[in-house]
Write a structure and sequence with these properties.
Length: 206
């Protein structure tokens, strides 16, 4: 699969022309976390081995799920190490915005030379990292990767989730959501359906 095809798959699925660009909170100095992700109807973001090829048919549908509009609202991305490793398997680096990879096992020295200036490795916990990024002027951060999203949710650092449900059951895989200390009510904002069968909902947290 070409890079272009893979990236279209990644971006389009992780991604609606009428996507409601979230209101920028210009009065607050804190960084807010935002999720934009695709999952199977049974709640998996990848197969057990990390495979996301099941998304490709939906990316190929040509439907605009709003990824570009979403990306225009964020200052940068934070991703878990496993998601970063998946992105490294693409033909080229797909992000124009700065990326912070959270990892306790990788260091800056492990980065490919061409990623210098584009990617930072951080071993900070979610809250101190958000505070550090706030001091750098980040207002909105895209948080990506199942386990990373779960840990940000558990620390109340996610403001909203745009979840695109892919009409497939995988039976097993890497889950989007995980254990919680208590039920977490979500405010449903909007749901859009696509001819391909994708269903995209936006929920606010907190
Ligand atoms: N369907 C979609 O739209 C979509 C979107 C994104 C990703 N994906 C897929 O999701 C898979 C990766 O998700 P994942 O849940 O396995 O992993 P992940 O969240 O991407 O990465 C988890 C890793 O991040 C590091 N980490 C550092 N601080 C952390 C913290 N506070 N909480 C959690 N992790 C922290 C740890 O790595 P160290 O061991 O190095 O410390 C941990 O093992 C990939 O297959 C990717 O393709 C799918």
């Amino acid at each position: 699969m070409t890079f272009a095809a893979k990236f279209r798959m990644w971006s389009s699925i992780n991604s609606h022309a009428t996507f409601m660009v979230a209101t920028l909170n210009t009065s607050s100095k804190r960084t807010t976390g935002h999720v934009f992700i695709a999952a199977s109807v049974d709640g998996y973001i990848a197969r057990p081995d990390g495979d996301i090829d099941w998304l490709s048919k939906y990316a190929a549908s040509g439907e605009d799920t709003g990824y570009d509009a979403f990306m225009n609202t964020v200052d940068g991305l934070m991703m878990g190490r496993a998601t970063f490793e998946k992105v490294l398997s693409f033909d080229s680096w797909p992000f124009k915005k700065p990326v912070v990879v959270l990892s306790r096992t990788l260091s800056q020295a492990d980065l490919r030379a061409d990623l210098g200036g584009k990617v930072r490795i951080s071993s900070l916990a979610p809250l101190p990292l958000m505070q550090a990024l706030a001091s750098e002027g980040w207002r909105r951060a895209y948080v990506d990767g199942g386990r990373l999203i779960q840990s940000f949710i558990n620390e109340n650092l996610i403001s909203d989730i745009v979840l695109t449900r892919i009409p497939v059951l995988l039976g097993d895989g890497i889950p989007l959501f995980g254990p919680l200390a208590a039920d977490l009510p979500l405010r449903h904002v909007e749901t859009t359906t696509f001819a391909s069968g994708m269903v995209q909902s936006r929920y606010e947290l907190g």
